[in-house]
Amino acid sequence: MSPPYKLTYFDIMGLAEPIRLLLSYGNLEFEDCRVPRESWPNIKANMPFGQVPVLEFNGKVYHQSIAISRYLAKQVKLVGKDDIEDMEIDAIVDVLMDFRSKVAKYHYDGDEAAKEAYAKTLFGEIVPFYLEKLDKQAKENGGYLVGGKLTWADLILVGTIDYMNFMAKKDLFAGAPNLIKVKENAALVPTIQKYLETRSNNHRC
Amino acid sequence: MSPPYKLTYFDIMGLAEPIRLLLSYGNLEFEDCRVPRESWPNIKANMPFGQVPVLEFNGKVYHQSIAISRYLAKQVKLVGKDDIEDMEIDAIVDVLMDFRSKVAKYHYDGDEAAKEAYAKTLFGEIVPFYLEKLDKQAKENGGYLVGGKLTWADLILVGTIDYMNFMAKKDLFAGAPNLIKVKENAALVPTIQKYLETRSNNHRC
């Protein structure tokens, strides 16, 4: 029998890694379908709004990585203790996505002159601004982003750090000890530890 | 006594209009604090992550417009019937935000040559792509975005249409009859109708 969840994305961490982490955290069995780039044009046409990742289960295809992550967080009980805490989690997740998109803007800019000009703002202002505020929040919450305990916001961070460093071509988080602590705390969970130690890029559909 | 909610944003619809709609829908009294542009530098320094809108209540300041909207949707009961429907709402809200940001990229581009080049892709490909898929979803859901009934996803759309048209300098939604129907259906709710008829830009802090 095939696993109940089928995740479709490219053969990278990218936007799917938080979903892989959440599924792994909860011991939810999933098919980790990694589409080779050459197959993408054919698959794209069948994706809702032409994008991946998508998660398929019970015969339906669900899209948007953060919407999927929030759904899975409810299933594996990594949400807040009430509506207020859920709002705080949602807010910091959207901050992380804003931060990621500002780094992505650098990575995906094909115009070398514009890229160089933007690099000054990105690395001189934007990155330090976000890191200082995010690190402060992680410090105040004892090595977690919200509520002093592990929530799906932490797994969004853990699943996005490597992708952001890859896009920035440097270790963005080296000077943010409390964000590193968030990653370390998440890795103390046996299911997360096991996933991080055994994850591979070898599975293809 | 001051109202329980204080919303702080600029004197425009922008990212705050869905929040104003949700508060108004639920008859939740709020102070609609609109900051003049000249006061912004002083206020920015005190905002979480340097941005507005923020919503203040019970002595705390909450940020990120979609996180705030989702919280308010829970309070006024405009959420889905279960976790799956909530994921579908979250997904379409994130699609609307992706769509908005692609229009914003055009509006805020200060380089006229780059702007003209991007306009071809935006109006020739991106806008038709999103409108066709969004309109189809609204048609399948009987003039709503999810679940055949009013949810906060509809109010995100209603609150974003004018801002997007302003940024695009044209009526983007003229050829999307089912999205127009979403707006008409929302306006059938007396509290929404009253807000849309009486909203003003006159309140300043």
From TrEMBL, chains A, B:
Statement: the UniProt record of this protein carries the keyword Transferase: yes
Entry EC number(s): 2.5.1.18
InterPro entries reported in the protein's UniProt record: Glutathione-S-Trfase_C-like (IPR010987), Glutathione-S-Trfase_C_sf (IPR036282), Glutathione_S-Trfase (IPR040079), Glutathione_S-Trfase_N (IPR004045), GST_C (IPR004046), GST_superfamily (IPR050213), Thioredoxin-like_sf (IPR036249)
Keyword terms of this UniProt record: Transferase
Pfam family, one: GST_N
GO biological process: glutathione metabolic process
Catalytic activity: RX + glutathione = an S-substituted glutathione + a halide anion + H(+)
GO terms for MF: glutathione peroxidase activity; glutathione transferase activity
Residue intervals of the GST N-terminal domain: 3-80
PANTHER family (alphabetical): GLUTATHIONE S-TRANSFERASE, HEMATOPOIETIC PROSTAGLANDIN D SYNTHASE
Complex and partners: Homodimer.
Similarity field: Belongs to the GST superfamily. Sigma family.
Protein name: glutathione transferase
